[in-house]
Design brief:
The protein is an alpha/beta fold and about 500 residues long. The chain has 2 domains: about 140 residues, Cobalamin-binding domain (Rossmann fold), CATH 3.40.50.280; about 325 residues, tm_1862 like domain (pyruvate-formate lyase- activating enzyme, Alpha-Beta Horseshoe), CATH 3.80.30.20. Helix content is about 40%, strand content about 15%. It contains 21 helices and 15 strands. A 7-stranded mixed β-sheet has the order 2-1-3-4-5-6-7, with helices on both faces. A 6-stranded parallel β-sheet has the order 8-11-12-13-14-15. A two-stranded antiparallel ribbon has the order 9-10. Helix 1 crosses helix 5, helix 16 packs antiparallel against helix 17 and helix 16 packs across helix 18. The longest helix is centred in the last third of the chain and has 18 residues. It is globular, with a radius of gyration of 22 Å. The structure holds cobalamin (B12) and iron/sulfur cluster.
Amino acid sequence: MARVAFIVTTCHEFEGIKVLSSVLKQHGHECDCFITSEEKDFHGAVRDYAPDVLGIYATTGQEAWAHRHIEAWKKELPHLKTVMGGPHPSFDPGNLRDEGIIDAIIKAEAEYAMLDLVNAWEGNNSIELIPNVGFLRDGEPWVNPIRPVIQDLDELPFPDVDLFYKYPFLAKKRVMQVHASRGCQNSCTYCSVGLMKKEWISGKKGERFNRTKSVDYLVAEMNDILARFPHFKMVNFGDAALNMESGWIQEFAEKWPAKVGLPFACNVNINYLDEDDIEAMSRAGCVSVQFGLESGSEDVRLKVYKKGYTDKVVYGIPTLLRKHKITYRTNNIMGSPAETLDDMFNTVRTNRAIKPNGCTVLIYRPFRSTELGREDFEKERVDFSRDIGPSIQADSQMLRDDVEEVVNLQKLFNVAVYLPFGLPLVKALIKLPRNPLFDWTLLAFLWYQHAVVSGYGMVDDFKLGLKNIGQIFGKKSGGMHSYGDTQKNQFLDTLDTGQDVSV
Ligand code: B12
Ligand code: SF4
């Protein structure tokens, strides 16, 4: 039996970690998870747990957040092995160059790779033949070929919520985070999902990237959680889209209200949504949905972002959602290379026209794990001197003359959408230097739309915002880590090719 500690910097119930833990526990290992914001003494808590294996989750920009701690833990716990997983190392194994800090990485879905790795380390066996696992080979990062993604999500044990609900704040908040699926019907060029599909699927006939838990499994999972943590009032589905599989929503609408009965919010893919689905979702208890509008320009949406949403869909679906009394929020991107400032104001106008109950506005980030991001790096559109930290809400990393105005527009976007004279006002305001008032304006709208409109709870959402403020506005948190001084070129060397911002 090995002791495995997962560490994360965001106060959130991570589906990936929950499932990794449940699989490890099913095979006799012991697991715990430590969240920076929830521990009085984060460093000491992990040290005192005395793990054999430490698992670090990282999105791009978070790849070095734990290095300082790991260096110290490795001295305090000489047997400690470290493995990094999640979207960043899945596309960039460069952290392996940090010898003595990261011993291995796991690419893509990690349930069985993590089990094999922990077993191998426990038995002092070689890790070199384990699929999905990356390590240093002759001083260079090497990643083994990956196994197929898990086809039947029902074969997995229930996600281990105890890891997160040991923390009173997470267990006692109003809204529970749940996942019903993996994958996404779209392959937007600014999102990592497109390359995940290319790289993680072998092309074998019948192999699926988009998978949904059966409704019976989901209902049983929910009841298992609610039996132990009964006071959740609402559920938020973190999936890219709850309407992932045709027909699923209809069965869900029959069983969910009778067997679970909690209201819920979710993301939807508006290309695969008709009035029957919307009616079924409403019947099931859906109170709020979110979808990616991203740009007011149909051309940018279809040709650059490859989002697939025509203007007809963008204008048509909101009418149906309103008819069935479901509130809706849009996701919007500011500052992509495809858009001028005028185009971004067009996105404001589209939102004014379709009247969402809230607008999430993120700043375009050139991830090297996306089609558009890779083009940005190749065409040298990225400002390497700007360490923007982990978030896609704080700052822009693009080289563009109007970058300050773009960032200001992201902060004041909701003012432009919701105030009667918002548009001309914001056009003038974005010329001012960046200032904290703009940041607080963004936060205030976000809080109101999340907490009040979508029902996440005013106090909970306020506290959650405070806990994750570093994630939202933290400019530097060990992001833009340079592995020696080779980071600039290294990613492209090691990438073998093929919520969201809709989170
Ligand atoms: C739900 C979601 C969120 C949720 C939950 C966070 C989370 N990361 O799970 C919230 C809303 C909090 C969120 C926030 C953010 N997100 Co988000 N999110 C997603 C989304 C839509 C689904 C993730 C998911 O739950 N999948 C299902 C589970 C089962 O898979 P998984 O999490 O990938 O876990 C598997 C593997 O990654 C691996 N694994 C996971 N953890 C670990 C840990 C170890 C030690 C190991 C070895 C392996 C491992 O094994 C798991 C099981 O197979 C993805 C898009 C996508 N489809 O992947 C974007 C995505 C992960 N998010 C992204 C981004 C940018 C963010 C933010 C930075 C946005 C922001 N606020 O500025 C923050 C970062 C916060 C954080 N610390 O993660 C990007 C990351 C891109 C990149 N290259 O790094 C993604 C890929 C979308 C995109 N734009 O491309 N997100
Ligand atoms: S941005 Fe959203 S809709 Fe587009 S591929 Fe990513 S998860 Fe899917």
